[in-house]
Specification:
The chain is mainly beta. The protein has no helices and 8 strands. The chain is 0% helix and 42% strand.
């Protein structure tokens, strides 16, 4: 009978750069129109007044002003309410 040695799993082969996610401009700081406030995967922080969300859930400033973070409760499609952080820009 012929035998073939089983292929082993290799470790330490994943060499991917980080995605550089997170909050870029914190509460109380000044922001200009179009600047990135939060880079994220999924909508953990939602856009409020003075901000908008791009296709990859990045929150941008829509106006010049000061960044404010608020806790809000939103209703999901199942009817369950969950708490989210709302990113706002006040003039």
């Amino acid at each position: 009978m012929s035998h073939v040695k089983a292929g082993g799993s290799s470790k330490n082969i994943h060499n991917n750069a980080g995605h550089r996610l997170g909050v870029k401009i914190f509460g109380g700081q000044k922001v200009k129109k179009g600047q990135i406030i939060v880079r994220q995967v999924g909508a953990t922080k939602i856009s409020g007044p003075g901000t908008y969300t791009s296709y990859n859930f990045t929150v941008h400033a829509a106006i010049d002003g000061t960044v404010v973070f608020k806790k809000v409760k939103i209703r999901r499609f199942t009817g369950k309410t969950v708490e989210r952080t709302q990113v706002c820009v006040e003039e």
